[in-house]
Amino acid sequence: MKRFLRSVLPVLLVLAPAAAQAQIKLLPPCTATGNCGIGDILVVFVNLAEFLLGIVGAVALGYFVYGGFVFILSRGNKGEVDRAFGILRSAAIGIFIIFLSGVFVRFTTQALTGGQSRIPTVGETCVSSSQTSAASGDGIWVLLPGGNDIPEGLYCMKKEEAATKAGDDCLNLNAELERRGRKTEYSCVDVNTVKDGSCVRGLCSKLPAQFACCISQ
């Protein structure tokens, strides 16, 4: 059993993260329309870097588990115990290096874009007219489902300026979902009152922070 685990676990630790990451989309949303710019090339490289860092990070985390198996199966054998601690030590160093690499990728992105990230992130402020990130803008990046030949992906949704009181419809969000063939009615409500449903935060900018565009299931 011990020999079997030693031979099979390393293979599983390599293949499992790769399979889990297989569905990650490396290309930016603009490829669906062909309206891509130079900044979108940077998005591809950053997505690829994060894709690879995710796989390597999962492998390093998996080796913690592998090191734990080696330690449990050592049965007090000093050589095996030392080997287990060596695996755990190497995994810890690997995760630390991966963390620094992720920070470096983000720092480089910020430097190349003049301090404003061109990498869309859910909840980040954006400019709805140009679909670009900005320190202050009239929109929020949200993840929307696909439909009507529009792929699933991040979309810079304009804030609901017309919603000034509880219960007002999220007109911009509802209109975009209807354009995608998804008839859904979101409204600005207090998230504390939503027990079972989905909410999109940050759009109800005229209301207190606890309000979001929500729909009850």
Overview of the molecule:
This protein is of the alpha+beta class. The chain has two domains: 2-112, no CATH class; 125-216, no CATH class. Helix content is 45%, strand content 15%. The chain is built from four helices and seven strands. It has helices at 2-20, 38-72, 78-112, 171-179; strands at residues 125-127, 132-133, 139-144, 153-158, 187-190, 197-201, 211-216. It has a four-stranded antiparallel beta sheet, with helices on one face. A three-stranded antiparallel beta sheet has the order 5-7-6, with no helix packed on it. A hairpin with a 4-residue loop joins β1 and β2 (132-133).
Provide a short characterization of the protein structure:
The chain is of the alpha+beta class and 217 residues long. It has two domains: 2-112, no CATH class; 125-216, no CATH class.
Notable traits:
alpha+beta, 2 domains, four-stranded antiparallel beta sheet, three-stranded antiparallel beta sheet, 15% strand, elongated
